[in-house]
Write a structure and sequence with these properties.
The protein is an alpha+beta fold. It has a single domain (about 10-140), classed as Transposase IS200-like (Alpha-Beta Plaits), CATH 3.30.70.1290. The protein has helices spanning about 25-40, 70-85, 110-115, 120, 130-140, and strands at about 10-15, 45-50, 55-60, 100-105.
C-alpha cells in the first residue's frame, strides 16, 4: 500500500477590520499562541506567526487533506472570539473579510520565516499596502483594487 507524502508551505496574511491598529504588544504573544493552537489542533504545522497592530502573517506546513479556506475561517472566527472574550480591546474586535495566501518551496523556508519574524523592523521601511501589493505582483496574482483590504488613507 502506498502513502501520501507532501511538503506544502503556505503564508496567510489578513488584516484587522478597517485596518485599525488594535493588536497590542501587551497581548499579541497570547494571541499568537492561541492561533498556533488552532493550527496545530487542525493537524497543521505552525512555522512562523507575527504581525503588526493592524495585520498578521501566519506561515504553515500544510497537509494535502487540509481545506485552507476552512482553516483560515476557523482561525479568524476563533481568534475574534478569543480577543473579545478576553476583552483585550475597548471596542469589538474583528478581522476584515478576505485574506492573502502565498505558497513557497522548501528552499525558501528560512527566508520566509525570517521575513515574518522581522515584521516590525520591515514595516519601518515599507507600509502594509506596499508589502501586500508587492506580494500579489511577485506571485502574479490578478486582483481588482476594490477587492483588496481597506487601506488607511495615508498609505
Amino acid at each position: 500500500m502506498s502513502g501520501t507524502f507532501s511538503q506544502i508551505y503556505i503564508q496567510i496574511v489578513f488584516a484587522v477590520k478597517g485596518r485599525q491598529s488594535l493588536i497590542n504588544n501587551s497581548w499579541e504573544e497570547e494571541l499568537y499562541k492561541y492561533i498556533t493552537g488552532i493550527v496545530q489542533n487542525k493537524g497543521q504545522k505552525m512555522l512562523a506567526i507575527n504581525g503588526m497592530p493592524d495585520h498578521i502573517h501566519i506561515f504553515i506546513g500544510m497537509k494535502p487533506s487540509c481545506c485552507l479556506s476552512d482553516l483560515v475561517r476557523e482561525v479568524k472566527k476563533s481568534s475574534n472570539e478569543f480577543i473579545n472574550d478576553k476583552k483585550f480591546c475597548s471596542r469589538t474586535f474583528s478581522w476584515q473579510e478576505g485574506y492573502g495566501v502565498f505558497s513557497y518551496s522548501h528552499s525558501a523556508l528560512d527566508n520566509v520565516i525570517a521575513y515574518i519574524m522581522n515584521q516590525k523592523q520591515h514595516h519601518h521601511v515599507k507600509t502594509f499596502k506596499e508589502e501586500y501589493l508587492k506580494m500579489l505582483k511577485k506571485f502574479e496574482i490578478e486582483f481588482k483594487d476594490e477587492y483588496l483590504f481597506e487601506w488607511i488613507e495615508d498609505e
